[in-house]
Amino acid sequence: MAAAGISPWSAYPVLWEGAAGSADSIKETLVKATPLLLTGLAYSFAYRCGLFNIGAEGQLYAGALAGTAAALLLPPLPGWLHLPLALLCGMAGGALWGGIAGALKAGRGASEIINTIMLNYVGLYVVSYMVTGPLRDAGGSLPQTAAIPLAAELPRLLGSRLHAGVFVALGAALIAYLLLHRSAWGYEIRSAGSNRRAAEVMGMPVRRNTVLVLMASGGFAGLAGWVEIAGVQHRLLQNFSPGFGYDGIAVALLGGAHPLGNILSALLFGGLRSGANAMQRATGASTSLVYVIQAVLIILLLCNRYWLAGVKRTIVARLVGRRSAEQSGHSGQSGQPGQSAAIDSKLGGEGA
After folding, report:
1. CB-based contact 282:14 (threshold 8 Å)
2. pLDDT at 309
3. Residue 302 is part of which domain span?
4. Are 90 and 213 within one domain?
């Protein structure tokens, strides 16, 4: 930040104020954290099965498209029915998009990394086609759909942009935790993630779980897309996502790929996004600096997990080796009992 000509001493306090300095700031942080939590869950759920779902962005767009189409095309329904149906359609759209990669992985052994990345672009351009063609708002000239019915919108909370989607995201995190850590299916998922071959030998349906896990993962991402439409945008727009699907990977990494850890990391990244706007207004700093901060956090996390962990193991091994050497030296100075014990042990082993 200093290299960009911005004083950190003036920028960081403003960043904090914009993220959590007032009730309005906290509400905005929650708004931005909601889709990040859901896309983080999408990556974490697949990761626990040993799968890398890089396609949350495409699944998010697929869910947003399916939910918006359901909201616009369903006949007039009461809110208690219209909203849940549109929400389920959003999840189904994301699940279908994730299931494509799952079927290719289970059936043909195709890399889910490559497939999900490619499906990101397919989902993005399908939505672009739909909002400029079949679903385009007839009364406007912008690439967007008509506004969804009020019955399909998520309720606003506390007279602000904060909406009920935050409770949907928290409920999804709780469900993901219970599925992964408190169910037999979750045991199968985590077993496949730890050792796929051993899980197969034990008779676990690894191929079937591959498809189901990527479908569930896509369902979380699709839910993120629909929540963003129903709670914030209220219509499907071209390129409405600023990269929630990709940022969800960072959320999952920082949260340890644990559903409950993702809540805290999503709040952190949501706060950074919310505070970035305030920082730009007050200091003129570009909001892209927030992405630099995110990258630094991920680098520090990886250093702690891999490099520093290796350093710690090396130090501990050397200390243990030195202590063993000192104990051997003391035993040799006291009449060589250590040597006698070693000989007795060897003789006893040969007799056995």
Report:
1. yes
2. 66
3. 295-326
4. yes
